[in-house]
Protein backbone atom coordinates (compact mmCIF):
# COMPACT_ATOMS: atom_id res chain seq x y z
CA UNK A 1 0.00 0.00 0.00
CA UNK A 2 2.73 2.45 0.94
CA UNK A 3 4.71 1.65 -2.19
CA UNK A 4 1.71 2.46 -4.36
CA UNK A 5 1.28 5.78 -2.56
CA UNK A 6 4.91 6.73 -3.20
CA UNK A 7 4.57 5.77 -6.87
CA UNK A 8 1.47 7.92 -7.27
CA UNK A 9 3.14 10.82 -5.46
CA UNK A 10 6.25 10.65 -7.66
CA UNK A 11 4.17 10.56 -10.85
CA UNK A 12 2.07 13.47 -9.66
CA UNK A 13 5.17 15.46 -8.80
CA UNK A 14 6.66 14.77 -12.21
CA UNK A 15 3.49 15.86 -13.98
CA UNK A 16 3.35 19.03 -11.88
CA UNK A 17 6.89 19.93 -12.88
CA UNK A 18 6.17 19.20 -16.56
CA UNK A 19 2.99 21.28 -16.55
CA UNK A 20 4.74 24.12 -14.71
CA UNK A 21 7.58 24.25 -17.24
CA UNK A 22 5.21 24.17 -20.21
CA UNK A 23 3.09 26.92 -18.65
CA UNK A 24 6.18 29.08 -18.20
CA UNK A 25 7.24 28.53 -21.81
CA UNK A 26 3.78 29.40 -23.11
CA UNK A 27 3.64 32.50 -20.90
CA UNK A 28 7.06 33.75 -21.98
CA UNK A 29 6.20 33.14 -25.64
CA UNK A 30 2.91 35.01 -25.32
CA UNK A 31 4.65 37.91 -23.57
CA UNK A 32 7.28 38.22 -26.28
CA UNK A 33 4.63 38.15 -29.00
CA UNK A 34 2.62 40.86 -27.21
CA UNK A 35 5.71 43.06 -26.88
CA UNK A 36 6.50 42.65 -30.58
CA UNK A 37 2.96 43.46 -31.67
CA UNK A 38 2.85 46.48 -29.36
CA UNK A 39 6.12 47.77 -30.78
CA UNK A 40 4.74 47.41 -34.32
CA UNK A 41 1.64 49.38 -33.34
CA UNK A 42 3.70 52.14 -31.75
CA UNK A 43 6.00 52.32 -34.75
CA UNK A 44 3.06 52.65 -37.16
CA UNK A 45 1.04 55.23 -35.20
CA UNK A 46 2.56 58.14 -37.11
CA UNK A 47 1.00 56.77 -40.32
CA UNK A 48 -2.55 56.92 -38.92
CA UNK A 49 -4.61 59.94 -39.97
CA UNK A 50 -7.94 60.81 -38.35
Strand content: under 5%
Q: How many individual domains?
A: 1
Gyration radius (Cα, Å) is: 22 Å
Oligomer: single chain
* pLDDT averaged residue by residue: 93
Number of strands: 0
Q: Number of helical segments?
A: 1
SSE-based structural type: mainly alpha
Order of secondary-structure elements: H
Please mark out the parts with pLDDT under 50 across 5 or more consecutive residues, or reply none.
none
Distance between the termini: 72 Å
Query: Tell me, what's the shape?
Result: rod-shaped
- Can you give the helix content as a percent range? over 70%
Largest sheet: none
Description of the structure:
This protein has 50 residues and is mostly helical. The protein has one domain (2-42). 84% of the residues lie in helices and 0% in strands. It has 1 helix and no strands. The chain has one helix spanning 2-43. The protein is rod-shaped, with a radius of gyration of 22 Å.
List keywords for this structure.
single chain, 50 residues, 84% helix, 0% strand, rod-shaped
Amino acid sequence: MEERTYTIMSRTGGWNIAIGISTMVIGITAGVLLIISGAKLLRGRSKIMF
